[in-house]
Amino acid sequence: MDKLDLIKFYFNLGLAYKDILHILSRKHRIILSLRTLKRILKKNGLFRRIHFDSLEETVGFIKEQLQGSGALHGYRWMHSKCKENGLHTRKEDVRIILSTLDPEGTEIRRSRRLHRRRYFAKGPNFVWHADSYDKLKPFGICINGAIDGFSRRILWLNAYFTSSDPKVIGGYFLETIKELDGCPRILRTDMGTENSSIREMQRFLRRNDDDDQAGEKSFIWGRSTANQRIESWWGFLRKECVDFWLDHFHRLKDEGDFVGDFLDKNLMLFCFLGLIQVMLYIDKERNRL
């Protein structure tokens, strides 16, 4: 995509101007001033809070979404889907339309509110949660990520051909502590061997500290399903991104175009790894808003 297409794409995702400039600079090496960005948007008729799309278009889009997995979405999620598909509409309008078109679903979502476990972290970088996400692993693509327990900031989110190599996971950890100029007080992961390198790194970096979590206590093992913060993020990522790729890959498998051998998995990596990493990058940047 050229510069204008990139600006339109990120604008339609609902990103703030400063975040569009940040992604253009970091990801695409396109340096623009805020004034230049606003001038380009104005020239191409892209405005915020000036005009909204008609209710008829919004109703039509929501009706279409309700025919599929959109029937599971609440109004906040549906409003995000509207923005991602280029529809400028008010969140309150989406709520009213959704409750009118799908009153039964709205009532079910309202009555089945979860009583979530309480989570506590003392502050930013007090505890980081790291884990691997293996839903795409049968197709040769492995995802690994980490999240700050207090701010819920995504620290790294990467797709690669493996998430089982301690050196690869260690590289993600080192890149992050270099970027942030520090490590967490506590690092929590599951008991997989892929986390052996970051375990030793974390304990080494905290070996000379004198707080209650220094040294050996700065790293915590635990079951993956109990790693609450990152598991919650994986649920969000599946709805936001992974379900689309799972449906696409299973369709290839059902049609006989993917049998899971070495060649097929490497073709999947060649064709889709870059696209999935871009989507993960966008989700990571959106998480910072």
TrEMBL record:
Pfam families: rva_4. SUPFAM superfamilies: Ribonuclease H-like. InterPro entries: Integrase_dom_put (IPR058913), RNaseH-like_sf (IPR012337), RNaseH_sf (IPR036397). GO terms for molecular function: nucleic acid binding. Residues 120-257 form the Integrase core domain. Gene3D superfamilies: Ribonuclease H-like superfamily/Ribonuclease H. It comes from the Eukaryota. PANTHER family: CLR5 DOMAIN-CONTAINING PROTEIN, EXPRESSED PROTEIN. This is Integrase core domain-containing protein. It comes from Oryzias melastigma.
